[in-house]
Amino acid sequence: MLSFVVLVVANTCVPSLAVEENEPKKLWDQCVVKISPNCALKIISQIFGDGVVSIPCCKELVQEGKECHDTLVKYIADRPSLIGNESKYLQKRDEVWAYCVSVSKAVSPA
């Protein structure tokens, strides 16, 4: 399972898979670097597999921002090997976001 997740993450950075050559670098520069690799793998694992996102990773995700989260997941879900289940992945993306926002608010100092 972990090799699948690593492969998916790696594929987001390969220019040959992109519509535009600079798109993966732009995604990487603007979004992926805003979250730790460990948390990125946990989030991707929950959306595309059976992983679980921890509260600290939820906090990182919320700090990363919804636009980055949506863009990165959509970009991965659009891969030819995953597009058949894209609607399922996009629903899980939204569920992870809602969960992370709720737990981040619950543990944040007032």
TrEMBL record:
Alphabetical keyword list: Signal
Ranges for domain Prolamin-like: 30-101
InterPro entries: Prolamin-like
Superkingdom assignment: Eukaryota
Leader sequence residues: 1-18
PANTHER family: BIFUNCTIONAL INHIBITOR/LIPID-TRANSFER PROTEIN/SEED STORAGE 2S ALBUMIN SUPERFAMILY PROTEIN-RELATED, BIFUNCTIONAL INHIBITOR_LIPID-TRANSFER PROTEIN_SEED STORAGE 2S ALBUMIN SUPERFAMILY PROTEIN-RELATED
Name the UniProt record assigns to this protein: Prolamin-like domain-containing protein
